[in-house]
Amino acid sequence: MRIDDAYGRPLRNLRVSVTDRCNLRCQYCMPEEDYVWLPREEILHFEEISALADVFMDLGVDKIRLTGGEPLLRRDLPRLIRLLAAKPRLRDLAITTNGVLLAELAGALKEAGLHRVTVSLDTLRADRFAALTRRQNHAQVLEGIQAVTRAGFTGTKLDTVVIRGVNDDELVDLIEFGKRVAAEVRFIEYMDVGGATRWSMDQVVSRKAMLEILESRYGRIEPVSEQTTAPAERYRLRDGTVFGIISSTTAPFCAECDRSRLTADGMWYLCLYALQGTDLRAPLRRGAKGEELAALITGPWQKRSDRGAEQRLALRERAPLVQVARLKEDPHLEMHTRGG
Ligand code: SAM
Ligand code: SF4
Ligand code: SF4
């Protein structure tokens, strides 16, 4: 089954946040001192996530990415992975993690049936990591990345948010590191999403600027031509190394966007920038079954006309999406709740 939104975009890709908690405090995501957390009793149980995944799959979803907060903080996560990996209709089951707990968990994740891992890695320098994340876990993250390969995963990606004056002098080093650990590096433009309360346009390093930096070191860089709805544009260096750039801020890709997001407490969002979502937890806990839940998803998706990043690009004056007070009132607007 395929359902299309108002622009003909199918519902295919679901990001499931399994917790809003995190063991890092990245400056571009969680810069504040205090946060309002989702109430524990409202967090979906694994069986509830699995039941919702079935409904989404009935409607065409065949890719699920687990995220957070930090997904590896969710107790017994391999059990959820086992439940999801057993679904024959799921073609791709991935996770995005900050890597801190990966060295411990990579083997169990692989054994449970996880297909792919993306690790967020913004810097190779421990001092920078400490300043950027306000935590001291850099060595653990690097060990975690090695553990992913050892556990037998392939198709590993390393995601780097590039920020002017913070890590824009590490693009080459990160590509070289990616080569050594057999992972594809993807550079992400700094986005003005909910939670990025310190964002400003002058800190954004555009795709164009990133390519210039890389071409000055590697020579001509060729785009890889491929038909995909993945957010990254991929490029090839002369030695064959492939890397990606996710240019959500200066050249958004909303036209192809087949992604939606489910928060850990069962709110479903049609766009990273959406201010309102659909509560799927309440009907689920009331006992709603497949068809009723499917109708709650089909209706909003068929009406979906979200193009959040494109609308942001069209603004004359660009500032953070939401102010801190509003984030405290509704933590669902936070990137760490929504899952990125
Ligand atoms: N904690 C996990 C991690 O960091 O990989 C998963 C959740 S995190 C919200 C998902 C992704 O969103 C990470 O790769 C992170 O770098 C990215 N992200 C968070 N805030 C961002 C921002 N303001 N601009 C661009 N990417 C951002
Ligand atoms: Fe950093 Fe991810 Fe945690 Fe946000 S959720 S603070 S990006 S590790
Ligand atoms: Fe999709 Fe919204 Fe991101 Fe555009 S801004 S790519 S519509 S999630």
Can you walk through the features of this model?
The protein has one domain (13-335): Alpha-Beta Barrel (TIM Barrel). The mean pLDDT is 96. The two termini are 26 Å apart. It has 340 residues and is of the alpha/beta class. It has helices at 46-58, 77-85, 102-112, 126-133, 138-150, 171-180, 207-218, 281-286, 290-303, 308-314, 324-329, 335-338; strands at residues 13-17, 63-67, 92-97, 116-120, 157-162, 184-189, 222-223, 233-236, 242-246, 259-262, 267-269, 278-279. The chain has 12 helices and 12 strands. Bound molecules: S-adenosylmethionine and iron/sulfur cluster (2 copies).
| Number of strand segments | 12
What overall form do the CA principal axes indicate?
A: globular
Oligomeric state as shown: single chain
- And the CATH topology? TIM Barrel
Q: What distance lies between the first and last C-alpha atoms, to the nearest angstrom?
A: 26 Å
Unreliable residue stretches: none
| Name of the CATH first level | Alpha Beta
Radius of gyration: 19 Å
Q: Say which CATH homologous superfamily is assigned.
A: Aldolase class I
Q: Can you list the strand order of the major beta sheet?
A: 7-8-9-6-5-4-3-2-1-10-11-12
Query: What count of domains describes the coordinates?
Result: 1
